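Hey,
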Amino acid sequence: MSDPGTAEVPACYRPHLLQAAGRIGRVRYMAYSLAAVILCLLVMLCMDYFRMDGAGNLRMPLLLLTTALLAVVASRRLRDIGLPWWLAGLLFVPLAGAPGWLHGPVFAALSLIPGKQLANRDGLPPCANGRRTVAAASLWIVLFGAAVWLVLSLRHSLRTM
């Protein structure tokens, strides 16, 4: 039993979405990444739907902002794995002319590599995920399935043209 005058050190910490420091696990990484991607898609759909004048000029800054948000989330994930946070800067490489498909393998690797179970130089491990976080991360499966269906259906319709 601990002394009532001393506070117990928590075995984990609860990360927040708009936090730049700290660590996040695989499920939170997927959920937080989804938030940035959906925000970007919604803004682009609104620009297209309302046919905003000069919307084409806003696409690149919007992509840069989304990539910056994804880089912050990736840097937190890299800290959890035990790698240097600055490797998240590699997410900007596709914007500099490298193939755009590079984001997919980076996302997959950060989603699959397990983090450190114990505290590391970047702090305590994150607490267990809640149901909403798991549900949000699971939406990636739905989005991936929808993208595959869209590509396959477009490929079929383009062949018939």
